[in-house]
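Researcher: Sequence recovery benchmark, item below. Answer with residues only.
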């Protein structure tokens, strides 16, 4: 059985990918490549990797700079699968590795299975409207996986395995300047309750109403893609969907969002979805546990009254 590699920018994500590798094959050796120091590599071992390499990042270096070294090692070691996280940087690495290895990549692959020399799995097509099943007998196959795709195995510090370091190649892309990001400090991926806003809000000042409701509910505020990407009313990391964040809150309250497939994809694992939309035919209504047909200008005050008593 050939190895399965996992490549991740941090330990929590490496742990998810290791769990993914264990689900795909009980027998394969799992080799982890993780940004950080020896402690990070040992953490990957504790989560189930057979061996691990730390990829320490010099201050002016970029994570993508490891790609040539990873590609050379993959050509020699010929892993059956390389699992990578769907973080932006890891997606870059996945694309570059696929090019250097001339290997296929299952982007956000689901249901990946490995049987003999064949790898099969699903990827989304048509912006998430359909899933495509494919299989390949390529020597090495790349798969990107989301942070919530697998439940990590708890760390067991008594596990042992070989630990090494992979050198970054010279001439790799370098950081020339850093600018602080204009972002809110919340992480909607971790929030138990999320209030999300869409184009049903026509003025950025109106988002304050949603924020007030979110505060009363102890929720974080998220949005649909146009609110972040086109209007720039909220930071990009706040939008939910196939090209944004995929989240699993206990409660997802979508206000003024139509519920297109690309948005719904990001909340398919939410426990309870409540949609507020003035259009009785809105798609979100068919895909929610509860829905309220109404103008948010009336619904938000009514919900606030109900929550605050
Ligand atoms: C490849 C691809 C990837 C994409 N990825 C994403 C993604 O990751 N995330 C994402 O969100 N989108 C994504 N999109 C865009 C997606 O298809 C939709 O266009 C987008 O989600 C629509 O955003 P919206 O629901 O806010 O706006 P709209 O579709 O314009 O819906 C606004 C809704 O608000 C309702 N409304 C209006 N006024 C009120 C009011 N006063 N009170 C209550 N309701 C009101 C309307 O009835 C309407 O249903 C993607 C598209 C493509 C092609």
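Model:
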């Amino acid at each position: 059985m050939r190895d399965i590699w996992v490549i991740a920018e941090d330990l929590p994500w490496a742990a998810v990918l290791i769990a993914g590798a264990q689900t795909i094959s009980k027998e394969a050796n799992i080799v982890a490549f993780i940004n950080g120091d020896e402690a990070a590599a040992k953490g990957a071992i504790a989560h189930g990797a057979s061996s691990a390499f730390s990829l320490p990042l010099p201050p002016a270096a970029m994570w993508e700079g490891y790609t040539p070294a990873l590609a050379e090692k993959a050509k020699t070691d010929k892993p059956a699968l390389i699992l990578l996280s769907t973080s932006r940087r890891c997606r870059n690495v996945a694309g570059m590795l696929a090019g250097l290895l001339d290997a296929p990549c299952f982007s956000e692959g689901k249901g990946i299975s490995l049987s003999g020399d064949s790898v099969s799995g699903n990827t989304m097509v048509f912006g998430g409207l359909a899933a495509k099943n494919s299989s390949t007998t390529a020597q090495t196959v790349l798969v990107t996986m989301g942070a919530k795709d697998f439940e990590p195995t708890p760390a067991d510090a008594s596990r042992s395995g070989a630990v090494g370091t992979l050198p970054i190649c010279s001439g790799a892309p370098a950081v020339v300047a850093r600018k602080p990001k204009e972002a809110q400090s919340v992480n909607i991926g971790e929030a138990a309750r999320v209030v999300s806003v869409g184009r049903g809000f026509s003025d950025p000042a109106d988002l304050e109403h949603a924020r007030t409701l979110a505060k009363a509910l102890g929720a974080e505020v998220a949005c649909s893609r146009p609110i972040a990407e086109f209007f720039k009313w909220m930071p990009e990391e706040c939008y939910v969907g196939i090209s944004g964040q995929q989240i699993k809150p206990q409660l997802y309250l979508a206000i003024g969002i139509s519920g297109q497939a690309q948005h719904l994809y990001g909340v398919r694992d939410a426990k309870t979805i409540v949609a507020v939309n003035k259009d009785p035919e809105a798609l979100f209504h068919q895909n929610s546990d509860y829905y309220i047909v109404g103008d948010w200008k009336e619904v938000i005050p009514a919900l606030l009254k109900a929550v605050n008593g």
